[in-house]
């Protein structure tokens, strides 16, 4: 059974008490205060070229996490040639959000135990916890054991991912800090202070929040944290794929599912199609509406979840 088709286990939904880790709280307060100062510098002192360069890095960082870490490595929605994998893992490293291996491990666990307290980003604890609070609370006591239950053989077979994982902090410091901060000082005489706060703190903070939204956006785009029904029982939305969270969490291998509440549109999907046109991305996986509609009677007839019928 592949990482994308394994059935979700039955989990007793009891909240585990999480303790606040205060040094991490202070760390994130510091990062966000510096990022806020960087935002002020954009409007008061930083050169326009610096701001445009910052936006460019944020955009390519987003691609590294959306069509890279998320759609390619976590969900295998398509196959990528090695130049594209190398490009995307470079973009992902810029975000300073951990290695692709660790991100995929957490995200697959997130899908496997979605909506339970074994999910690190449990949306039933509220948006803030799902988005950021989990970063400075203690983990579920079972988390170490749960991570061993996630099938990561496909990721471990990718030498590019494993090379990044082994040397992550070397690559992260060089690609994520030194080069972005040094570039504006070297090529258009930006001040060191502006470079550090705009290309360092502000850019990294924005990139981090965009990555965090991948795991927390289900609340913003229609998944009621008080709704106890399984997504498997809400089949009608699948006909037009209008209720994004349920569709993505039931059929995560569809390359058209965007990270921020969209389907078959958005910047990341557009770039993925460009890479497909270049021959770098192949075997793009999706399910058309007619296939879903035709599968619904089988769900009723054989009393099987839709995801099993579509396998």
Tell me the distance between the termini: 11 Å
Uncertain segments: 225-241
Strand order within the widest sheet? 1-2
| Whole-number mean pLDDT | 86
* Fraction of residues in β-strands: under 5%
Task: Give the overall shape, derived from the CA principal axes.
Answer: globular
Record field, number of beta strands: 2
The total of helices stands at 14
Order of helices and strands: HHEHHHHHHHHHHEHH
Summarize the main sheet: 2 strands, antiparallel
Indicate the percent of residues in helices: 55-70%
Structural class: mainly alpha
* Spatial extent as radius of gyration: 20 Å
Subcellular location: Membrane
Cofactor: Fe(2+)
Family: Belongs to the fatty acid desaturase type 1 family.
Organism: Cacopsylla melanoneura
Description of the structure:
- The structure is a single chain.
- This protein has a domain at 22-224.
- The protein is 59% helix and 1% strand.
- It has 14 helices and 2 strands, in the order ααβααααααααααβαα.
- Strands 1-2 form a two-stranded antiparallel sheet.
- Helix 2 (48-74) crosses helix 12 and helix 9 (168-188) packs across helix 10 (192-220).
Which descriptors apply to this entry?
14 helices; 2 strands; two-stranded antiparallel sheet; 311 residues; mainly alpha
Outline the secondary-structure elements:
Blueprint: H1 22-44, H2 48-74, E1 79-80, H3 82-93, H4 100-112, H5 127-131, H6 143-148, H7 153-156, H8 159-166, H9 168-188, H10 192-220, H11 244-250, H12 267-277, E2 281-282, H13 289-302, H14 306-309
Main location: membrane
Protein name: Acyl-CoA Delta(11) desaturase
Membrane topology: Multi-pass membrane protein
